Give the backbone structure.
Amino acid sequence: MKTKNNFLGLSGAGFMMHFVRADALWYWTGTAMVAAYGFLESVFSGQLFALVAKLANQTAGIWQHTVFVLCLLLFIILLTGTGEILFTKAAAQVDFHLRDELGRRMARIPLKHWYQKHSGECMTIFGKDSDTASEIYKVHIPVLISLILQAAGGLIVLVIASPLYACYAFVWGVCYLWIGMFSRTRWRTHSAKQRQFAADSASTFTDLLSGFPVIRMYESIRGKLLGKHRDEVEQSFAAGRQIARISTQNRGLWQLGYTLSYSGTFFVGLLLVYAGNIDLSNMLALWPVAMGVAFAITQLGFFVSELQPVMAATDRVRELFETPPEQSGNRSDIPDKTPLISFAQVNFSYQDDIFALNDCSFCIYEGEKVALVGESGSGKSTVVKLMMNLYAADKGEVRFCGVSVGDYRMDVLRSQFGYVPQSPHILSAPLIENISVVADAPHEHIINMAKAACVDEFTDSLGDGYDTYVTENTLSGGQRQRIGIARALVKSARVLVLDEITAALDGQTEADIYRGIADCAAGRTMIMITHRLSAAAMADRILVFSQGKVAEEGTHSELMLKNGLYTQLWAMHEA
Amino acid sequence: MKTHPQQNTGALRYLLRYVGERRLAAGIVLSTFLQTVRGTLLMIAVQNATNRLLSGGSVWGAMALMLAAMLIAVPIASMREYFNQSYELILQKKLQLGLTAHIAKLPLAWYESAKQGDALSTYTADVELLGRWMGRQVPNALFTIFQFILVFFYSLTQNIWLTLIVFPALVGLPPLILRAAEPMKKLSRQARAAAGQALDKAQELLRDPEFVKTYCLENKFTQRVADALDAKRRAERKSGIYAGLVKAVTVVSSFLPGFIAVAAGILFLRRGLITAGFLIAFAQLSIQTFGSLLVSISGFFSATNRVSASATRIYELISQPAERTTGHTAPVDSQTAIELKHVSFSYPDGTQVLSDVSLKIGTGQIAALAGRSGSGKSTLFKLIMGFYPAASGEVLVFGRDVRDWDLGSLRALMAPVFQEPALFAAEIRENIGWAADDASDEQIMQAVTEAELSEFISSLPRGLHTPLSEKGVNLSGGQRQRMGIARMLLKDAPVLLFDEPTSALDSVTESRLAQVFERVRHGKTAVTIAHRLATIRNADIIYVLEQGRIVQTGTHNELIDQDGVYRSLYIEQHEGGSLA
């Protein structure tokens, strides 16, 4: 819990308020105009009561007073109406600004950070938490200003009319102010818990959805996952109960504050009348104002407490904003140096304890077809990710054309690679869009590349061919892989990286795809991760990975002569 | 389920019945009612005090009444807050638990057609909105309605004529406000749709950040989010002018009753028909009560509008027909593990996947399905697992038609290994151990060892307690597959189903696993889908599928001698893919 140097636990408010800069002038103008309503209303009611008293006593000046009251009403209507327009527009602007920034920040979070967070949790932050956090400028700041205006405006009126009355209202308000603040720390703690457990349960819900077939086949996994979800919901509920208890208590105290403000100011007003300090009709006009002052000041304390759940949400939004974004260099030209890619004594681990590369060194030259082979978990996929600077090496240097990958501007470096992962991501969108999304290319080109990747072998079996709406769940592994390949071909990058692309494909389709790739990407550098050694054997050079480093390298025949790891793999393969 | 709602309110009613908690709901009504009663008491007290004051009498009695009326508000307000909040919390809890439990019972067909993002936003946003509506907006609306009625009757007892003059004006006002708010409805609907869209687009950004980054789609995707947000902004800004109008009308309406009361009251007062005290109390209450009445009634209408859309979405999800839970629980024929008789099947969208497939796999046999991508092998598995019913023909498992089986008992007999093992954000121990009820550490370690994972796990400082990321993205593809295999081993079922279990494994690990399968398979039935024909060479029987039909049957040696699909598949593979 970040509560150091945190005045009343409200430091997050300042953070949220800087989004208001998007439309500061109109936001503050509108807010002030709307917020003035509370104060003006109390003045207006007072004037109305005074008018009634005058009427009852047949005092002089009734007409003038009536006209004044009417003008006041007109003024209030115009002011609040216009204020509301300005405020609504400005708030919409600020809302846009907040979410847009948040989206852009999310897109730039380094992968290493990503995988420590659950996507369900990120969605909760983008949706629920930022909704709650935005209440600060949409609800709470206007309330605060309205309270301040009511207190300050009322005090000015009272000081002029009856300093004693003003004094009472002010002192009473300040005395009660503290009561509202008592629960603020507890409120914050429980709110933070409630939100965390709610995000956890959303994550488990996501797990349940994405593992659906497995859950249906493994009854006990279903039971355990539902149990985990139940625990999280119950914990969130328990924190909610604590909050309900606090707010029940607070509600009572609030009502007490209101009661005492209401009757206290009435009582003191009467005393002042008896003491001859003010006359009765004045007292009736001032009473609502005095009550407004006393009540507004007591409210400030409750305001601080009620802001705590919003602050708990703000903390979560803020944490995402404060995650350092991916580091990008600024070099945008690529020197004409060889080798194309080089690794020098690179160490890397995904988490503190899952090591992936250990003193890994190798080179890849322009135009080469290189196969990466080796046991699963030996670091083949990892080196590819480091090349594209998806992750930064913990130690050692990864270079592209002689320059450290971290020095390039991110998009410049990544545009050099056409990467096909093991299970390509499918957007919930028409199939064609799933391919065309990666580059602005003419339709014809996209269709040609899709053909080269054998995508059209299965489009016929889909309802609407290329226009069929597809999702992650509707396509088979092999179909997804072909879409991934089509994407890489459409991108037509300098280096083609294929990570186990044909694992879910039969031999015929595999051969067709390789033919397609050869046609479309002739002469380009190609890095191929594979377990099918028959495919690897065709490569110009083979890097054999073992335990996070390159154990052997050479052509197929060279490696076979070495009688090492590769020969062993082949023996198994042939068996 | 039981009732099918004709319209949105039907869904709302269904969900409120679903949540139940009648006592809490009654508590909300009661405490709200008490609060309005005490509001009326206060009005009487203020009236008395003012009258005494204006006539110069003693006000202390009236003051005491006033204080009493205000002090009883303290426990009442607390009580009201308690009931409101408790109901909101319980509603959210029950719906979230209910939704999740229900989704876990839905058929695979739902999963394959549903958008995950929609289900998630129903689970989070819609449930929250509904809870807030029940816990806040409804009690507030109740409050104003009660207050309206009480004040009306009290005023009648005090002065019929003044009441009859003021109240008709009140009745006319809510329609006026609603009228002014009418254009806002469409805009707020637009804004809400755009907000949903933005969430959806953000999810695209979040689901696979690696894809976004490798294709430099950050700008493109954030721009899509921004476009949706912009639509929301435009709708909201456009609604500003109406918001201002509504505000102005609301201010007028909240003062108008007081004004009319005062204007009419003057006449009554001059004739001595009412007291000035009553007039002040009445005017004050008119402003306080009716102003807020009008505001909350119009707010309530727009909130209800919004909430009924959420309720419909929750209802649709929670009333999706679940998979059947009836059927026989025991096998009939223990000799034939799996038998298909003239089975045809096509997916709901009409694509024919299997036609007239017949096969028979005896208990203890090793069978394999071979064929090109898209030949119907995986679909056949789904039929055996009871995920889809055959369109015609029979699918028999241990002699009983899948349609007659209790699906839970049927699936308990099978341990499948999927292409993607679906790993969760939990420890490795949980990810594997959950596959069996109460698996001990020894059992888990044994499964881990047999799945060739022990070397990897012992290299981790936290061993089995290492947490995995969502979907196990911090593992390699081969490690993930072996996790799935460890699960299968732990489940220890009589029928093993392998859908490409080793596609991401190197040949060393693969052959080691083949030995493990050989061992664990003892006495069990195994069915394997494989593209790498080498892995199914030892199968007792191989069925070769082509476009949804079985075109060849036999052992590896028999099939390789025939001039057919199997041989050409085999030859293609042994030549390998050729790099240009």
Q: What stands out?
A: The beta strands of chain B are 336-346, 352-362, 366-371, 392-397, 400-401, 414-417, 495-499, 525-529, 541-546, 549-554. Chain B touches chain A through 176 residues (CB under 8 Å).
